[in-house]
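Mods, move this if it's the wrong board.
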Amino acid sequence: MKSLHYLSIGLVVLSLIVSSCGTASHQMKILKPGTITLPSDIKQLGIVNRSLPGKGEGFSNFLEGLVTGESVAADREGSGECLKGLAAGLNQAPRFTAVVIEGVDLRGTGTREWPEFLDWKQVEDLCDRFRVDALIALETFDSDIEVRKSSYDVEKTIDKKKVTVKEYAADLRMDVRSGWTIYRPAGKQVIDRNSFTDEMRWDEKGDTPDDVMRKLPSKRRAINESGYFSGRQYAIRISPTWMDVTRTYYRKANDDFKVAGKFVKQDKWNEAIPIWKKYTLDTDPKVAGKACYNMALASEVDDNLELALEWARRAWDQHGLKSARSYISLLEMRIYERGKLDEQMQEDQK
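Not the wrong board. Structure tokens:
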């Protein structure tokens, strides 16, 4: 069995939890605001790598790599993937366009220690040369890898006989710590300087220890994929980003709900809404609550968050539908975030 896990430390995900009994899922995209808001006059971003060691520091880092088993060359390649991940994330979002600036030799410490800030004349020259409004520098990059091995007994049926066999498992964890600084030449402003730790994990099982280890990715691949993922995560932190989310609706309150569910699967919400709306006044509080809940979802799909919140509150306040409480919290968060999103997108709306 193969599984891959992603964990971004410091990233909080609010999920909607509803009992699976009598429900169905609906996939949708929503635009989430970035954690920080960049000035509205910034549209084009240049991305540079400043995480590599300066002259005279490479040998000491190489010796450290021999002792710890880490590969300086692998981190060098992984930091390049980190830049690509950031550029891809920003260019797929609606707020910025970004370009990775190559062929510029900017050196840092090659460790987790921050270098001195870039000289502003150098920042201005790079922004003018590549026609960008601000510079994002990857100024620290470091990776840690850990492999945990285990074995256990499992019962299997072989030749119609139940036997106990040994099964082996391994868990590879890759932590990437990336430090970023955003330089804005206008006003010589450092907009953000922060570091983050992002984690990727791979789980594998097999019949022998060697079999399990062969299934795990190489260290080089693990660092590259983790570096790319870390770059994508920073894009989410500084830019509005489209996110795939799952919502749940009720489809089995009665036969009419089943009909409405079929309309939803066909993306015919206007056909489903009259069915649900009729039952919001039903004498059975369970049916009415589920109808109000579904109306809340239909309103959210239509991007009418205030109306969605009204329906969700009605499902809970008037009909006691417990699942509506989680949905109320989610909608309140979306309404709060929309104010931040409007601020971040205001330049593009003019």
